[in-house]
Amino acid sequence: MSSTALTGRTALVTGASRGIGRAIALRLAADGARVAVHYASNEAAAKETVDTIEAAGGSAFAIRTELGVPGDAEALWEAFDAHADGVDILVNNAGIAGPGTIHEVEEADYDRVFAVNAKAPFFIVKHGLERLRDGGRIVNVSSGVTKVAFPGMTSYAASKGAVEVLTLTLAETLGSRGITVNAVSPGTIETDIHPWMADPAAKAHAAGFSVFNRVGQPADVADVVGFLASSDGRWVTGQNIDVSGGSGLGL
């Protein structure tokens, strides 16, 4: 369902060509925002996301920037500036997985995970502050792996923990400008980055983590981001909202 809640506002969603990021871009566009669809390499998927938004009567444009490399934040905003003169909603969604216990993680792999998942959002915000309008919104996508011990994703969990603390700090820093800063923590979400869900038994096992006995869908996360991005979320800041369908409540 479309609305006019975000009409006249511009949003930037990193990693928006597929998965959760794509769903967030679609939701914000449906609510009236003009959306910058950021992608790192999958141009076809980003174009499809933009085309879907425009076919529904929305407005969007794609920008390509690799994250996790020197100068990434500056390059991202330079690409953005070619299409818009300011931003109201920034969603730091782009991220990469970092599998392995501490015994298995190599230093280069650790550095890559932190460069994309923690360092990039930090400097995207820093270099975006002059573009972010007062009363704006920042939403950082974290993960449910920060809630419990998850040894198989040690570096990934640590990088998302950094994002959650950054969220708190930024909420305090930017409150005087009326800017809210929040995080959302998805649980297991059915996207194409989880090909193992094609196995019915594996998918059923993952569904069992939630009290609703199903795996999450990208829209389950996007709808919460839509709330935080709207005027309805004006009094919520510095929070990390669990969007895992109650995963782990019985532990």
How does this structure look, described?
The protein is of the alpha/beta class and 251 residues long. Helix content is 39%, strand content 17%. It has seven helices and seven strands; from the N terminus they run βαβαβαβαβαβααβ. The chain is globular.
How are the SSEs ordered, and which strands pair?
Layout: E1 10-13, H1 19-30, E2 34-39, H2 43-55, E3 59-64, H3 72-81, E4 87-92, H4 107-128, E5 132-141, H5 154-174, E6 180-186, H6 200-207, H7 218-229, E7 240-243
Parallel strand pairs: 1-2, 1-4, 2-3, 4-5, 5-6, 6-7
Helix pairs in contact: 1-2, 1-7, 3-4, 4-5
Largest sheet: 7 strands, parallel
Q: Looking across the biggest beta sheet, what order are the strands in?
A: 3-2-1-4-5-6-7
Which consecutive residue ranges, at least 5 long each, have pLDDT under 50?
Answer: none
The percentage of residues in β strands lies in 15-25%
State the order of secondary-structure elements, H for helix, E for strand: EHEHEHEHEHEHHE
Question: Termini distance?
Answer: 36 Å
**Helical element count?**
7
Q: Which geometry do the CA atoms define?
A: globular
| Average of pLDDT | 95
Question: What structural category do the secondary elements indicate?
Answer: alpha/beta
Radius of gyration: 17 Å
Number of strands: 7
Question: Portion of residues in helices?
Answer: 25-40%
Task: Kindly list the characteristics that best describe this protein.
single chain, 251 residues, alpha/beta, 7-stranded parallel beta sheet, 7 helices, globular
Can you give me a brief rundown of this structure?
The protein is α/β, with parallel strands linked by helices.
